[in-house]
Amino acid sequence: MSNAFFSDLLTSIAERGRNLLDGRSWSFSEASVTAADVLALCGALLSGRGEATGAVIARETLDAFARLPEAARKSFFEVLAREFGPDQAQLERAVEAFRLAPDGAAASRLHYMSEPRRQELFRRLNRAPGGTKDLVAMRVDLLKICNEVAEFALIDADFVHLFNSWFNPGFLVLRHIDWGTPANILEKIIRYEAVHQIHDWDDLRRRIDPKDRRCYAFFHPALIDEPLIFVEVALTAAMPDNIQGLLAADRALEHPEKARTAVFYSISNCQQGLSGVSFGNFLIKQVVEELRRELPHLDQFVTLSPVPGFMKWLSSGDAPPISRLEQALRDLLMTDDWLESPEKQEAVRRALEPMAAEYFLKAKSQKGRPVDPVARFHLGNGARLERINWLGDRSPKGLRESAGIMVNYLYDLEEIEANHEAFLNKGEVVAASAVKKLLRGDTRSMFSRQSPSGPVATT
Amino acid sequence: MSNAFFSDLLTSIAERGRNLLDGRSWSFSEASVTAADVLALCGALLSGRGEATGAVIARETLDAFARLPEAARKSFFEVLAREFGPDQAQLERAVEAFRLAPDGAAASRLHYMSEPRRQELFRRLNRAPGGTKDLVAMRVDLLKICNEVAEFALIDADFVHLFNSWFNPGFLVLRHIDWGTPANILEKIIRYEAVHQIHDWDDLRRRIDPKDRRCYAFFHPALIDEPLIFVEVALTAAMPDNIQGLLAADRALEHPEKARTAVFYSISNCQQGLSGVSFGNFLIKQVVEELRRELPHLDQFVTLSPVPGFMKWLSSGDAPPISRLEQALRDLLMTDDWLESPEKQEAVRRALEPMAAEYFLKAKSQKGRPVDPVARFHLGNGARLERINWLGDRSPKGLRESAGIMVNYLYDLEEIEANHEAFLNKGEVVAASAVKKLLRGDTRSMFSRQSPSGPVATT
Amino acid sequence: MSNAFFSDLLTSIAERGRNLLDGRSWSFSEASVTAADVLALCGALLSGRGEATGAVIARETLDAFARLPEAARKSFFEVLAREFGPDQAQLERAVEAFRLAPDGAAASRLHYMSEPRRQELFRRLNRAPGGTKDLVAMRVDLLKICNEVAEFALIDADFVHLFNSWFNPGFLVLRHIDWGTPANILEKIIRYEAVHQIHDWDDLRRRIDPKDRRCYAFFHPALIDEPLIFVEVALTAAMPDNIQGLLAADRALEHPEKARTAVFYSISNCQQGLSGVSFGNFLIKQVVEELRRELPHLDQFVTLSPVPGFMKWLSSGDAPPISRLEQALRDLLMTDDWLESPEKQEAVRRALEPMAAEYFLKAKSQKGRPVDPVARFHLGNGARLERINWLGDRSPKGLRESAGIMVNYLYDLEEIEANHEAFLNKGEVVAASAVKKLLRGDTRSMFSRQSPSGPVATT
Amino acid sequence: MSNAFFSDLLTSIAERGRNLLDGRSWSFSEASVTAADVLALCGALLSGRGEATGAVIARETLDAFARLPEAARKSFFEVLAREFGPDQAQLERAVEAFRLAPDGAAASRLHYMSEPRRQELFRRLNRAPGGTKDLVAMRVDLLKICNEVAEFALIDADFVHLFNSWFNPGFLVLRHIDWGTPANILEKIIRYEAVHQIHDWDDLRRRIDPKDRRCYAFFHPALIDEPLIFVEVALTAAMPDNIQGLLAADRALEHPEKARTAVFYSISNCQQGLSGVSFGNFLIKQVVEELRRELPHLDQFVTLSPVPGFMKWLSSGDAPPISRLEQALRDLLMTDDWLESPEKQEAVRRALEPMAAEYFLKAKSQKGRPVDPVARFHLGNGARLERINWLGDRSPKGLRESAGIMVNYLYDLEEIEANHEAFLNKGEVVAASAVKKLLRGDTRSMFSRQSPSGPVATT
């Protein structure tokens, strides 16, 4: 019952932010602002005056920054990078002290003396109502020009450091997104969906309203109306092998109480300003927990994932040398009409399956990790590569990126810890034996619906 | 309207925390736990395994710590202090790099290389449901024994650093506390009131339920059911000069629409584990804003504050040499029966007033700041010392600490910034002229109800 | 603060209803249901068994009714009309007693003895979770066939009586509908808009999201997710004279703080099952109150209303005999190309203005009330007819219904009581003098923007 | 998720009510008010003016009534009784029409023509913000003097009729009351507890905060901050036989997951103005449902109930003639020292047990129903009398009312319907065989802890 009390807390936060946004546009004079103006305010904020006035100067600073012309923002960041570092004299003393006696106390002092004043600036800016949102937006501005000035990376490191602290998973709130969610949130779900586009409100409704569909998002109490990341889930009888069937408008509804499988078929980050702050791992695990609590019959948690890097890798020099036959098939593939005849399809399939297995199980980036970014994400979370689905995505994008191949990653709660460690420490890609067999050219069971016989690790 | 959506967010947080608390006591085996067990879990949490399992290991670690016997906690902290610092080799390389080229990039690298692994540990522990609360409690455990081992100060510095980031005022929520507040919160208001004790629920009700009384508290979204700091406010016609009248059960009610003055008569911090994280300044300013919005007629924001250090200072060697007359009066004061006769009262008053002015305006600590901690707080916030109230607090505590003297600090929004800077930069104690005159021995207008003629700064 | 406690109350209601709706489809066997089955359940509900089992039989009865084939519903209502009236013997005794001694006690007894058992049945059905919604739906079923059997009017009278009691304005809740409102509510706003169609979600957003637009709806705590009635409001500088300009996608935004006029341009009832229960009057007055509180600068509350009956009246025999010139113009009007030339427009205008004034000020229905239903509503609420707007609605519907004429009704809070009484008791149509002059053929000031010189009553 | 939207609804109601209450005291002039003033307002409200002004006149009327001196209220009610009945002429016509053709239509017309204008008055008064609360309070005023004027019963019948419609169980909301409930609600729980007094806030906390204790209340959306009825529940291993043990401050806590029995040990109505509107039956059944959902292991729902009428009955002439031995024992009982010796206790027990069985199973009121009001309530709900507990309540009140005897009523969901019908239709008191045996003088198993062998009905 006391939840009601706490539920009011966030109402307060939200109102504070909203009042602010309402007021801002009128309260501000129309005169132009320069980088020097904003920097002067930053200086005041870091000085004693900032202490006394609470959040007022912080608010003014952020408002002034928002009105800076683009070019002036670059100037602003340049000064931020160069003149808002640590106090050089103090830092040098701390360095010398550490060299004389490199103990814990000296290291600690070194740490605090080397903190760039930018960080304290950002913390003070965050005191403003709506400050967090504005700081995330400020980083978006920075990222646009981050490559133009080397020192901008220092500012960005400070942003990432602070945001990782502030957006600690312990502070995030998981929300079920459904047809009763406010329209302003749903509008952002439509906009931010990055994997399988949501075309309009009807399409959205098909993804969140039926009983066998779920959508969950992480929110942060200080970022009103803004999902951070969301995942779309389908409840099905068995592990699905293609996305068009899963999303078909005329598909049969699954009774959620009878579903055995939860399929994570789309995960999208929403905040560019929070790139480098990782939420996906926690989101998936918290949603698994939530679903198990609600639907105890669920016993299989899988993804239906794209393979965004496959075709690029195939056409790059990184793929292994291939036979003339394979080359011919790949030429065929490029012609785009191979889908029209079963014979061509079958020929392509036979050529591509082993390549896909190679791509997942053997191909490595320069850092020695899987080439595919989605694979890195799920394998890094402790999932195993469960199945390669031939023609899992027949959309133009799917055919272009991966010749239509999709994969399932399986989250087996008993194994994710071991899988994760094997992946992290030894670079092992844990995969089902069927995937492994494919590598050897034995593709018989590959695209069938039979459940694979068990995990096989491949280094 | 969408506030409702966000108000649900915190409900989720609260429930998550509460489920956890419910479950914890049964879910845990009764076997004893050692510091080594907890440290092993900390190690796992910092390793890859912690990544994979989300919040599970974090939760186990905090649960295990909670079951550590007291002695084992000390052992745990010792290892934490000594072995969870930064990576020494990397740090030394960063130091050398900085010495070769002491630029921003090297300083930044130095900063991140010198971060103690404790901080990352605390951030990962915070991922557990209810983690923030447990970390604040862990610091309480640390503070109890902080003096026993020098390196414990390093851990504490890390706690303070993180808590200052996490409890940034931008993340706090101001709540009006009234008779409709959940009992579990009100119970804590009773318990944490540190200035003028709340005796029971009836006493509490007299402070929060009448229309001319207010109470506001800061909450943090991740600390369910826990006020961080609260302030009690009385709405009055004029600036009050004594606390007993203000709190009398049979006082006349003031119509809030007619009140001109808001009196902050008690501010209490609630969380020992957050000492060193400062909320009071922001609380007062946000409450002033809130009250002005609701009651536009209010035009005076003052405190009625204790003077906790006066008698101690008076009896210490720090007070200035005094005449034999004054000495006699002070002897009288010690006899405790001076309150019984008007003559003795008057004699004491004449002797003490100049001393009180001296105490506030001239006396300095070794750091050159006012001796009185309450004065340091309000003057540091930019308030000015408005009036010294003779016999403002006739309670045993009031007489013991300050011979019954109380003071009003005035928050004049037009001046707080200038006051604050004068105080911070030049050590000026901004005070009303009446207080200043008192110093010169001219006490005629001092304890009258007349409003003072204006501020006078005294160095 | 305790609002949070109460805000939880409705959450409970909503959940109860929703759980029910979820469960219903599975919990019920698929066997067919007959009117006799439902009537048997009704009997049980009215007997003692209904008392004992709380809401269970009520729920079963409503579920069974929902599964009745359409024809069976008619049979069900026939029995309800004929056999669920009052106890005839008791009623006759009460009649005789009243005749012997027609005092208050006898009248009271007569009243309670004559209550049809249907009413108690409906009250008991309402005990079921979700019962209110189902009863409103049951009346929709009844209304479809109400004309087929004379006695059905008796059932309907009982519904109307109960719903008027249950949906008492004191139990309704006014909600601001905006872009943060849950999508399932907004979807219904789109669907139920009856005056100026909302074409899609973008169109909806233009009506509720901009700062100078508002939408308010009444809800009842027991009817989850269902608006009862809503009104759309535009904040403008002056009283508008046409709807296309008001709703134009590219119109200039009005700053809400500067707007002087609130325009109610669309009011739609949502629940067919609640026809005969009047909400509009209360809605308008509560919204006026709400707007005045929020925006004290508003000093004019008007409608921009359609004239749905004008053309029908004009072409009926009810309109007054007209001259040959007028006849020619009306013929022109029917040709539909008069809009294309200014000359023809002007000719039509001159002919139609006096007719419109006649329509509003003189024409009466058989009951002696204004012919126009919208006029009856607003005049009955105490508004005055403020202006007739030539070509206020150029949409096909507007041209078809009223040759494009729209009107403004003005809600002057000082006068609504007197206006209402004059209208109710004496049949007076209170109208601005400009409208009145139009009647006399003096149309000079009619369609100008000048504010009319004052109200003139016309009998 | 959309629950949040609806949870806001009630916040609105609550605020509306609260603003009203705040404002009322100042907005009203201090001049005295007479019954005639209030009646004039009532007349206006029933006339057209009331329609036009929405809730304003309703509010004024209720405010004026609240300021009426007590004597004036009586005058007011007298006019209400005599002059706010139905329209006599219309009623007489309806009576004649019915006599000519006593069909459904005529009966319906009779019903609506005989409705006292009071009912419409009350419905219109209810439109005022806070109106429901004031009407409930108005009935409290009426009940105080209801016996003084015969016609007041007519007004009361109208109140009861309306309140039964408005407070239909379908509109009530069940809330769990715990230590996180707002203090203003908890204060009322303390005040309204009518069975086992709650002494202070600590006592309250012992009843609602421990995991094995629950408290549930019904609320109505329009009655802010006011519980209607509440029940206190203990979760125990077995059916308890005495209240002192159940409420002991030092009792052992029961793990709620392990408890098999839910004990309803106190049910209290809160609103005197709603007497005659029955909530208890629904409350118990809804709480049973709630508990079963949360704690599926619970398989026994019983009460531990007082026997308030036993001693009164015993000392009245209604008890059966008793033997000299019994008389002696009863004399002993009156001496009050029989508790001090086991022998006397045993003697008393042997004498009283059969009398208690007689009291429950045989004794009837003039209406042929059980003498004990608590028995009537639970038996009427379909519970069965499960056990008579010797010395179940050793409090002064318990000894005075029932010589310390308490009973358990068992709610067996499978049987309550049949029990209820047997009780209602045939007057059967369904009781366990052990209770029945007691009647025959076979008391061996009576006060043991053994579970009784099964229900036995006794006429």
From TrEMBL, chains A, B, C, D:
Protein name per the record: Malonyl-CoA decarboxylase
Matches recorded under Pfam families: MCD, MCD_N
Chain ranges of the Malonyl-CoA decarboxylase C-terminal domain: 170-412
Domain Malonyl-CoA decarboxylase N-terminal per the UniProt entry, residue ranges: 84-167
InterPro entries the record matches: Malonyl_CoA_deC, Malonyl_CoA_deC_C, Malonyl_CoA_deC_C_sf, MCD_N, MCD_N_sf
